[in-house]
């Protein structure tokens, strides 16, 4: 496939990139997320992603790798935002650990375990705060690339998509999609939704989602320029929520590695929701680094604005070779072979 599955007819002069970060306590359930050395460590991942994307790595630091040696998506994102000369913005939707970097704070809480309690009790309030942020950003940019970092977020996405009536699968950060674990969790969550006869889309997020979802939905509503969602299953869940609210769904961009996940069948899911998705293929199979080639095995696949940074770089007229060079030089700077 070519670098972009579709090169849209979009022109812009002032692009910006932002990432909404948050936690879901589902990431601490064994087998749910590979976005950390162990389930407890996943609670720090959004903070670390944001710090890396905003500040980059410092001299003497190592490139963050997954337990199996895959370079974290935030590393690639940082390299490409430097290439594009874009300073990213971070929105704290609800974290367990206080971030060390400047960010916009909507004062949300970490997402709870939807099997036991409302996951996002303040979903309606977070949606309104997202609208306010989107309106504020209108004067900053004519194109917004909006990403996320929420470990466990594909499981909350599954719960929300199924809660809205879509019989679809979702992606996974594991090489082997751990769909059975997610389906068991989703079964219990859907039982709560059905038992309480929950129909309103934001109430479904309240019951089953994570704090990123209503904030991104709100920003999408408030921002009037071009907006593209960077991510796969998680951003598709946001699109489904917007559709259920009779709001416009922006296009989403994700990686070829998500599209290759047959369990997720992201193309089928996108079609069922009625959304628009584009795919970017950086061809890490041939880039010459094992830490990147592991994406082709199905590890990690996406996250932390990865697909959005790839898309922006290409749309800003950087060639595949220039994009590769920026990524490899960044890895070399910190000794990652």
**Annotation, overall tally of beta strands:** 7
- Element order, helices and strands? EHHEEHEHHHHEHEHHEHHH
The averaged pLDDT comes out at 92
State the domain count: 1
Q: What is the name of the CATH class?
A: Alpha Beta
Described by strand count, sense and barrel closure, the largest sheet is: 7 strands, parallel
**Separation of the first and last Cα atoms:** 26 Å
CATH homologous superfamily placement: Nicotinate-nucleotide-dimethylbenzimidazole phosphoribosyltransferase (CobT), large domain
The general outline is: globular
Count of DSSP helices? 13
CATH names the topology as Rossmann fold
CATH 2nd-level architecture: 3-Layer(aba) Sandwich
Secondary-structure content class:
alpha/beta
**Beta-strand level of the residues, as a percent range?**
5-15%
Percent helix: 40-55%
- Cα Rg: 18 Å
Low-confidence stretches: none
Spatial strand order of the main sheet: 3-2-1-4-5-6-7
Protein name: UPF0284 protein F1737_07630
Organism: Methanochimaera problematica
InterPro entries: Nict_dMeBzImd_PRibTrfase, Nict_dMeBzImd_PRibTrfase_arc, Nict_dMeBzImd_PRibTrfase_sf
GO molecular function: nicotinate-nucleotide-dimethylbenzimidazole phosphoribosyltransferase activity
Could you characterize the architecture of this molecule?
One of its GO terms (molecular function) is nicotinate-nucleotide-dimethylbenzimidazole phosphoribosyltransferase activity. This is UPF0284 protein F1737_07630. Belongs to the UPF0284 family. InterPro entries: Nict_dMeBzImd_PRibTrfase, Nict_dMeBzImd_PRibTrfase_arc, Nict_dMeBzImd_PRibTrfase_sf. The protein has one domain (15-330): 3-Layer(aba) Sandwich (Rossmann fold). It has a seven-stranded parallel β-sheet with strand order 3-2-1-4-5-6-7, with helices on both faces. It is α/β, with parallel strands linked by helices. The protein is built from 13 helices and seven strands. Strand 5 (226-230), helix 8 and strand 6 form a beta-alpha-beta unit. The protein has helices spanning 45-55, 73-84, 123-137, 153-163, 179-195, 201-208, 212-222, 233-244, 256-259, 266-273, 290-293, 306-315, 320-333; strands spanning 15-22, 89-94, 104-105, 143-149, 226-230, 252-255, 277-280. The two termini are 26 Å apart.
């Amino acid at each position: 496939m070519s670098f972009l599955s579709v090169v849209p007819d979009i022109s812009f002069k002032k692009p910006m990139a932002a990432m909404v970060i948050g936690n879901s306590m589902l990431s601490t359930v064994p087998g749910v997320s590979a976005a950390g050395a162990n389930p407890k460590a996943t609670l720090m991942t959004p903070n670390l992603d944001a710090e890396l994307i905003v500040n980059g790595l410092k001299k003497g630091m190592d490139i963050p790798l997954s337990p199996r040696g895959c370079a974290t998506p935030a590393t690639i994102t940082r390299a490409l935002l430097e290439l594009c000369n874009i300073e990213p913005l971070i929105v704290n939707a609800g974290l367990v650990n206080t971030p060390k970097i400047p960010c916009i704070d909507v004062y949300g809480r970490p997402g709870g375990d939807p099997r036991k309690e409302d996951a996002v009790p303040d979903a309606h309030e977070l949606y309104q705060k997202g609208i306010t942020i989107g309106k504020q950003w209108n004067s900053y940019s004519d194109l917004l690339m909006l990403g996320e970092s929420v470990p466990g977020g594909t499981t909350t996405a599954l719960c929300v998509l199924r809660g809205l009536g879509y019989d679809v699968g979702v992606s996974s950060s594991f090489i082997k999609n751990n769909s059975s674990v997610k389906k068991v969790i989703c079964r219990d969550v859907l039982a709560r939704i059905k038992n309480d006869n929950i129909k309103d889309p934001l109430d479904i997020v309240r019951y089953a989602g994570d704090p990123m979802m209503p904030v991104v939905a709100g920003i999408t509503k408030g921002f009037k320029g071009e907006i593209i969602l960077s991510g796969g299953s998680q951003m598709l869940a946001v699109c489904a929520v917007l559709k259920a609210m009779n709001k416009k769904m922006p296009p989403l961009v994700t990686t070829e590695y998500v599209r290759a996940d047959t369990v997720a069948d992201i193309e089928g899911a996108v079609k069922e929701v009625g959304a628009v998705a584009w795919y970017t293929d950086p061809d890490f199979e041939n880039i010459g680094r094992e830490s990147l080639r592991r994406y082709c095995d199905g590890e990690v696949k996406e996250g932390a604005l990865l697909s959005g940074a790839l898309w922006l770089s290409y749309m800003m007229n950087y060639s595949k070779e220039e994009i590769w060079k920026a990524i490899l030089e960044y890895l070399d700077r910190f000794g990652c072979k």
